[in-house]
Fold:
Amino acid sequence: MYVKNRMVTDVITVFPDASLSLAFQMMVEKGFSQLPVVKDKKLIGMITEQVLTQFSPSKATTLSVYELNYVLSKTTCEDIMIKAKDMVTCLPDMLIEEAAVLFNEKNIDSLLVISEEGILEGILTKSDIIGAFIEIIGTNDSGTRIAIEAKDELGTLADISTTIKDFHVNITHVTNYYYKSDPSNGEIVIRLNTLEVDDLVAHLQSKGYRIISIKKNL
Structure:
């Protein structure tokens, strides 16, 4: 799955010559914490709550409310925006898991998606990432989720898959992870397109596999 498969393409933006008053009003009305600044469809910067907060108090200490409002109306987004070159962005063809790494490493809430020419294509948020992984692992799909304890050995997954195939059951999703305390052991989580798994589970157990959990979704 790629970023372009999950990103929102209808992005609300402001022009560089828009006033801070307008940007602030838009952010309040839409419930946004940031606004991309776009010129000729290209991303040139970003206005954020933090930028506005850092700008306003410094002015508020020496200006009256009326003077402050005047300054905000005359100051443009381009004057104080974060420049595009200093922002974390990604391309539409980036893998969704690579985008997730960016979210984690950079501690960001959203990621603007731009083309190689710098044109704003969309925006990806944390909720988009979560939704993607829910889809990837099939959390809401009907069927059965079986977690199997397995060693990190060649052929383990192939053996489990062949066993399931012999019972004429289809695997819809597979994920696995290993224990930090013992990297040689972990869990293989398999989702099947059936609720009738008793015989299959019994056969897996007879082959020495320990079933950690079974969860059925109607």
Observations:
- The domain at 3-134 is CATH 3.10.580.10 (CBS-domain).
- The two ends are 26 Å apart (CA to CA).
